[in-house]
Design a protein that fits this description.
The protein has 12 helices and 7 strands. The chain has about 300 residues and is of the alpha/beta class. It has 2 domains: about 220 residues, Rossmann fold (3-Layer(aba) Sandwich); about 70 residues. Bound molecules: flavin mononucleotide. Flavin mononucleotide (FMN) binds next to helix 1, strand 4, strand 6 and helix 7.
Length: about 300
């Protein structure tokens, strides 16, 4: 039976759009009606970014301040399924993604509707997902699925390549040494596998067991080290954001935050991870397993 699907997302480079097209291919092929809305903020975010504009969005991302979106019209008042695409900015939902979930036209259609979330992140998406989960709960949406695509290269490698991509707009190999930034093309293409899983459950109108099947297909992989770094960093980002918004010389403090970030990632994180690996991780395997299960799931 033909089902009505709403897909709503924001993307700067088009990466999340490509991911979503790959995901929804099997839904369209099966004859479902897929209405896609690529939202645009009234005040566009620069792409490529300058160093200043990139760090300037940090406080609003972390504090969840939405922005105004250009007007859009939903064709239906109710949908069988809604796919929400989001990306992480500073361990938080990007400002446009946050604005989608706070939008007065979107909130009513989310209520009581099955929702699948999907992201194309660098590699730190857990805290942003937790915030999205909370927002979906507040709108009384039924969060039935979560799909996570990331750059699978080492953390420091993807940190360098994403900054190169974001600050130049070029998605090629930096210095011909580093790999291509972002989610691998093969992973974007493979997203159609998750789309087929989704199509099966959409057809039945029952999503019991879908997230477990998606996890088996590696639609979400939680990496311990990244989960660990993120859990510490999200609290510190919150402190920075709250501190910076109250300062008159915001730009100067954002520069300080930039240096903090570089030191935290390249110096502090490896030390803390080593200490954790020796003194804590070996004794916490059950707790770590539970945490991984929780972040892989939707309940
Ligand atoms: C300002 C900014 C902050 C970002 N912070 C994160 C982050 O905390 N974690 C992460 O995994 N990716 C982060 N990214 C990468 C994005 O999640 C995303 O992968 C990238 O911007 C490409 O998305 P697009 O489809 O909008 O072009 C950030 C990107 C931007 C522009």
């Amino acid at each position: 039976m033909n089902k009505k699907v709403l897909v709503i997302y924001f993307s700067q480079s088009g990466q999340l759009g490509d991911i979503i097209n790959s995901l929804t291919g099997p839904l369209t092929a099966a004859g479902h009606t897929v209405e896609t809305i690529h939202v645009q903020p009234v005040q566009a975010y620069p792409f490529p970014w300058s160093g200043k504009s990139f760090f300037a969005v940090m406080p609003d991302c972390v504090l969840g301040v939405p922005t105004e979106l250009q007007p859009f019209q939903l064709k239906e008042t109710a949908y069988d399924l809604i796919v929400v695409g989001y990306q992480a900015w500073f361990l938080s939902p990007s400002i446009p993604s946050n604005s989608i979930l706070n939008h007065p036209s979107v909130k009513p259609v989310l209520k009581n509707t099955p929702v699948v979330t999907i992201t194309g992140a660098r590699n730190m998406w857990i805290s942003a997902m937790e915030r999205i989960r909370k927002m979906l709960k507040e709108t009384e949406a039924r969060h039935v699925g979560n799909i996570v695509l990331v750059d699978k290269h080492a953390n420091f490698v993807s940190f360098v390549t994403i900054l190169y991509w974001m600050f130049t707009g070029k998605r090629d190999r930096y210095l011909n040494i580093f790999p291509k930034p972002g989610v691998a093309d093969a992973d974007i293409d493979n997203c159609k596998v998750f789309g087929s899983v989704l199509e099966n459950y959409l057809d039945k109108g029952n999503y019991d067991g879908m997230q477990e099947e998606l996890v088996e297909q590696k639609a979400v992989v939680v990496k311990y080290n990244l989960m660990f770094i993120e859990s510490k960093a999200k609290r510190i980002f919150g402190l920075w954001a709250n501190f910076i918004v109250k300062r008159k010389k915001r730009t100067a403090w954002l520069v300080a935050f930039k240096y903090y970030l570089i030191i935290a990632l390249f110096i502090a994180a490896p030390i803390i991870l080593t200490v954790d690996a020796i003194f804590f991780k070996p004794f916490l395997s059950r707790r770590i397993k539970r945490q991984k299960q929780y972040y892989s799931g939707v309940n």
